[in-house]
Amino acid sequence: LYRNLLSPDRYEKDLRPTTHHLKPTNVTFGFLLNQIVEMDERNQMLTTRSWLNINWMDQRLVWNYSEWEGIKTIYIPYQRLWKPDIILVNNAIREYHASLVSTDIMVTSNGNVTWLFSALFRSSCPIRECDLKFASWSHDVTEIDLGLNTDKGDLSSYMNNSEFDLLDMIAIKEIVSFPSNVKSKWPTIVIRIKMHRRPLFYVFNHVSRSQERKFITQVDVVGQISEFNLQLT
């Protein structure tokens, strides 16, 4: 079955799956927040560990399961299949793909394709409310149309952060155009994360830093007194 589906005369991974080249490929987007790793307030950069659930239909990967001993689902290495080139638009670092961890892609007999992958996303954002913006790198809405499977992100596996409380997370679809080409429309998925610093964490940090400054001042004073006594002797 695997060899049959991916035979060169049937499947080419560089070609976008569509029934007609003028029709867009509909891609459904899901976001699972696993952890708020760090909020760099000075540089306004949020680091999150998340999973993306990407889904689309590919008619080239349809088979009659009754002809294949009832097999309805197979898993294919992600390198072998076409995948939408979804990126984090407001990415704050260059090494975007370095942290990606991908599973094999699940394909069902009706051509339904599901791709799960995890990554450390570092996004530029203001404090307390952060938008993670995902879009296709090279395909506008005429070729890839991004949609949401829910207007709420998935928090079922979320791990609490010791510094920040997560207040809310929502998912929004926006259509964006650019001044260089206003005719092209780019579907963008915005994951909006709202959070605030825990009061006790702030107090602890403030007190610790105050004590540290006080200690440094005391050491400095003792040093000056010792130096003065040496000069007298």
From TrEMBL:
InterPro entries listed in its UniProt record: Neur_chan_lig-bd, Neur_chan_lig-bd_sf, Neur_channel, Nicotinic_acetylcholine_rcpt
Location comes to: Synaptic cell membrane
Main location group? membrane
Q: Which GO terms describe its molecular function?
A: acetylcholine-gated monoatomic cation-selective channel activity; transmembrane signaling receptor activity
Q: Which domain of life is it from?
A: Eukaryota
Query: What topology does the record note for this protein and the membrane?
Result: Multi-pass membrane protein
* This protein's name: Neur_chan_LBD domain-containing protein
Q: Write the record's keywords in alphabetical order, separated by commas.
A: Cell membrane, Ion channel, Ion transport, Ligand-gated ion channel, Membrane, Receptor, Synapse, Transmembrane, Transport
What CDD domains does UniProt report for this protein, alphabetically? LGIC_ECD_nAChR
GO CC entries: postsynaptic membrane
Ranges for domain Neurotransmitter-gated ion-channel ligand-binding come to: 1-199
